[in-house]
């Protein structure tokens, strides 16, 4: 037979009780949703499949005409090109140049989880696209995933500094050395290269590295929660 028991009122020493001396327990360390090796491979392969599928369809079905749907600066009728441009590439050399670095960076970011990957990617796409639309030059057309690739790289270079993760700092240093030559893609002067997309994509990646917290390691999350709990406790005693 079931019985009903009344729960005794919480005392001031009960963990989590307002004014309690014991702060709530922090969440335990675990792999973030959609992350790990499986998630990393999924995002890397997904990136490659996406850009190559569109490239082949454009080449074989549309005769290359889809490149028209890129970013046309200051053209209000084609603002949606901000989201279409990363999938469009002019030729084989163009799509190949973005394939390997894009897959590597997507793998490394995807390892941290689904939320991290999509937050960084969305911020980068919008920053690269909006900056290009505003400053890319009238009567030009900008296409390619390189703005996103630059954003991903910029994020990977600095995220370890802001989330205080030694392993990610090391990854950033290694990538900085391996891909140091990409710095020249941020500068104007090379005909046919959208340095605006590279520059604003990189700025978006830097912003993501500084602002998002979904990539914070469990130890940093715990410290922040404890700090917040102590602050709340201190305020409750006043």
TrEMBL record:
Lineage: Bacteria, Bacillati, Actinomycetota, Actinomycetes, Mycobacteriales
Domain Peptidase S54 rhomboid: 78-212
Gene Ontology molecular functions: serine-type endopeptidase activity
Annotated membrane topology: Multi-pass membrane protein
Secretion signal, residue range per the UniProt entry: none
Annotated localization: Membrane
Compositionally skewed regions (Low complexity) per UniProt: 14-29
Keywords: Membrane, Transmembrane, Transmembrane helix
Superkingdom as given in the UniProt entry: Bacteria
Renumbered residue ranges of the record's region Disordered: 1-30
PANTHER family: RHOMBOID-RELATED PROTEIN
Predominant location category: membrane
The protein's name: Putative membrane protein
Keyword Cytoplasm: no
SUPFAM superfamilies: Rhomboid-like
GO cellular component, one term: membrane
């Amino acid at each position: 037979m079931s019985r009903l028991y009344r729960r005794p009122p919480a005392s001031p020493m009960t963990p989590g009780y307002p004014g309690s001396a014991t702060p709530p327990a922090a969440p335990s360390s675990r792999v973030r949703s959609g992350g790990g090796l499986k998630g990393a491979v999924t995002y890397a392969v997904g990136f490659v499949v996406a850009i190559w599928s569109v490239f082949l369809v454009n080449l074989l079905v549309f005769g290359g005409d889809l490149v028209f749907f890129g970013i046309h600066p200051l053209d209000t009728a084609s603002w949606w090109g901000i989201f279409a441009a990363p999938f469009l590439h002019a030729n084989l050399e163009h799509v190949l140049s973005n394939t390997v670095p894009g897959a590597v960076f997507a793998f490394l970011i995807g390892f941290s989880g689904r939320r991290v990957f999509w937050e960084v990617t969305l911020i980068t796409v919008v920053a690269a696209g909006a900056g290009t639309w505003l400053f890319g030059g009238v009567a030009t057309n900008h296409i390619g995933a390189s703005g996103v690739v630059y954003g991903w790289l910029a994020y990977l270079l600095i995220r370890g500094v802001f989330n205080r993760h030694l392993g990610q700092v090391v990854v950033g240093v290694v990538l900085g050395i391996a891909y140091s030559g990409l710095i020249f893609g941020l500068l104007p002067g090379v005909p046919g290269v959208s340095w605006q997309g590279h520059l604003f994509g990189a700025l978006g990646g830097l912003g993501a590295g500084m602002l998002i917290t979904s990539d914070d390691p469990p130890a940093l999350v715990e410290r922040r929660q404890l700090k917040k709990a102590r602050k709340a406790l201190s305020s409750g005693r006043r």
